[in-house]
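## Example record

The block below lists the input lines for one assembly entry, exactly as stored, with component labels intact.
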Amino acid sequence: MIEVTEVPSPFCGIGTDDLTIRVEGVSLKVIDNGCAINTPAFEQAITDTSPRVNGKEVHLDIAIAAAAALLKDTHLPVIGGCATDVNGMRGLLALADRVGAVVDNMNFTGARNNFLALQDSGWMNTTLAEVKNRCDLLLVVGTDLEAFAPRFFERYLWNKEAMFLDDTSSREVICLGKSPSGSASTSPTGKQAQLLPCVTEDLPEVIAVLRALVKGQPITATAVCGIAVADLQALADKFKAARYSVVTWAAGALAYAQAELTVQTLSEMIKDINNQNTRCSGLPLAGKEGDQTANQVCGWTTGYPARMRFSAGFPEYDPFLNDTHLLLANGEADALVWVQAFNSKSAPPETTLPTIVVARSGMVFTKEPEVFIPVGTPGIDHVGHAYRMDNVVAIRLKKLRESGLPSTAEVLNAIEQAL
Amino acid sequence: MLIRLTGGTVYDPASGIDGQQQDIYIQDDRIIDKPLGEFKVDQEYDLKGKVVMSGAIDMHTHIGGGKGNIARTLLPEDHRQDPVPRSDITRSGCGHAMPSTFVTGYRYAEMGYTAGFEPALLPINARQAHMEMGDIPILDKGGYVMLGSDDYLLRLLTAKKDQKAINDYVAWTMHTAKAIGVKVVNPGGINAFKFNQRKLDLDEQNAHYGVTPRDILRVLATAVKELGVPHPLHVHGCNLGVPGNVQTTLDTIQGIGGLPMHLTHIQFHSYGTEGDFKFSSGAAQIAEAINNNKNVTIDVGQILFGQTVTASGDNMRQHANHKHASPNKWVTMDIECDAGCGVVPFKYKDQNFVNALQWAIGLETFLLVNDPWRIFLTTDHPNGAPFTSYPHLIRLLMDRSFRNDMLATIHPEAQKMTTLASIDREYTLQEIAIMTRAGAAKLIGLKDRGGLSAGNFADITIYTDNTDRQKMFEKPDYVFKDGQLVVVNGKVVSTKWGTTHVVKPDFDPSVEKGLKDYFDRYLTMKLGNFKISDDEIIEDGRGSITVHPLSS
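Predicted structure tokens for the full assembly:
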């Protein structure tokens, strides 16, 4: 039995790297600094270690040959999930380039809200250490932040000391839209977050009014979607008075049509505030299921984020048409490869197409795939790299145990070689 | 495997060879002397009438790191203009302004380049920069780690720590980030922007720390020198792009007090305020200062007309420049109490007065600086133009009538504001070889690169001599990388992986005591998880690390 300290997590998206984990054989126990997301993700037991072809346990070489044979004659295979580490994505993109596949990260429909805004008008963003040391006003938009990342407040807002704030507990937290599910946003001195609740679908209207107020435009209405305009005016004034305010949202939580316009309005509002003699920054939340990793590696390898295709022999990007679900539903795809090294509960979408699953041990299927290859989890079974939510920081993942499971990269590289 | 390159006309400034016919022998990955006695040549290339140089080295090119990837993500419409299909030996990707990593490697090699150095390795983003560069085939690579706006350094300065403490921190950072040089960008300005300062002159104080850019430049230049890092402090100065900044640049040269210093993309820092448009060329003053101060080297950061994207650590200046964004979308970031970045697409137009004069200022600088060992050919890729425009730039430098023809087409008011037409100089092949090979290797401190004498790695480029220098330099006949033939007739014929060049200056291990406390209290990562191990670069079996000697 050993205890490993300073373990970084690829699961929570906020780059917690202070976990202590007890390792006994192949079983893991989070001893210190676990949370509702990281603890079960680390502790999940290994069940199957053997690859299967048509439900029958086979040697890894046989499964790889079967996967290659299945992909050999396809016209438009879709590689979905794309939840793995940097080397896994490198292998995935090499295979996709080889077979002319679609590459689609499973969180892209949410992330698309950010990419469309970014690619249309850009933004001014910040990262977690700047929040930890500078943020004096945090606006949380449409997101239950503590459910998304249970340790966000503890690590980045209620930290004991900050370089540029005398008293971190005097920071102000305002939740717009969704109200928090717990009390993590309450400061150590008991100061509660201010709530400006509205239904998620009303956020576009509320945020449009907020931006107008920030710009000093007259608003004649007294309330918008149940929120008093006076409260929004007070918020606009607080932005101007703050020294380093931060606006955060989870793109996937804005689950309504054309939510990219909401992200754009927020991002343009942030630019407006920076033109009013103070600083303000955006902080998009993400980093789950390898989404940032997939978008980064796909970005430098192809020029595009992880919803693109190689079917023409070169990379093409379309954030709508390359959606796995769409391609399966309308019959364009002729095979599915599902790559999910982090989460065994994230099974592939249902399909009658031939399916190859390269995934974390323990995945349960409603329909057994033609080929299933259980792989190690980055940060548990092998070393690797994963990106946190703020895009700049890649964390170095540790190997905690000797499970004998291959990495995603090893499996996907072997399939490509077999072609 | 023994290769003989027979009868080529060799330009090897590193050994003083200027256009002499010589045979070159390659044994495996190195150049060797002609073997003694009897020997068997496995492969011979007849190079009679061809020009032979070592592989070119780009000493300042943004090829790895987060801001480049933001630039890629920002511009799908640019990639769509230049799709790159896969082949049996190459990966697919995209080109133009900010190419994908694989295409970056292929296109550099296809122009005869065998190494490129990323000048802005943020310590916290160095991991990503190395991973991206790890996906650039053929080229050797390396990076200059960025310091000067990081809160740790500014805290050391405010606490009046001595130079040794600074040196230890700089050396430790170079180790952890796997760097071969140190860069400073808008010294302290990126930090000041986080305190809402929108400009920072050389002697202006950071509102929180009370430290000035001049202080930062001096301690970092001293650290680099005292640590024996061969590459001088790599400086992106204050006031990038601001009319009148020529004075800031001249003051920066004076202020460094004779310490070695490299001023990068100096074109963007050579602007006066004369004329009807209050924008004029400071190139003559800059060139005179460079000619008179032997401690200073520069690269130009030439702009060339067309669409590109600017990606810089200088978020303070990039924020100010966003009003010129074309297309109108842009990104800035504050980064981890460490640095920042700003990404602004630009379309430089020959009929825009400012852009046209920027073009002329860069060329004036090239032509007025006398010593080719102290000036380097860059466009600050992709900021002034994509690196694929280098052959065109070489023609502008080597061909006066071509240059003057181009000059006659730019904005007429800009033509009146430049002395370019009166400058007769034409660069020679030897001078091009100095700027892009021998001089660059010397400046960076690369052992056994940038030369063609025995003992050097066999990074060799062979061109067909052509009076159209653009045609000549855009399509080499052969390129060898570490003795492997990688390009024939301007097309990649095989690929390999280059090495990562670093230096490892000494430091007192007790430096980690203060750092650990700082990381635990203020940063978001444990110190142990922050440090990049050699394994991270070499574990996938294709990367390697080459450690270069320190200066004595």
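Chain A has a mean pLDDT of 97. Residues 111-285 of chain A form a domain with the Dimethylsulfoxide Reductase; domain 2 fold (CATH 3.40.228.10).
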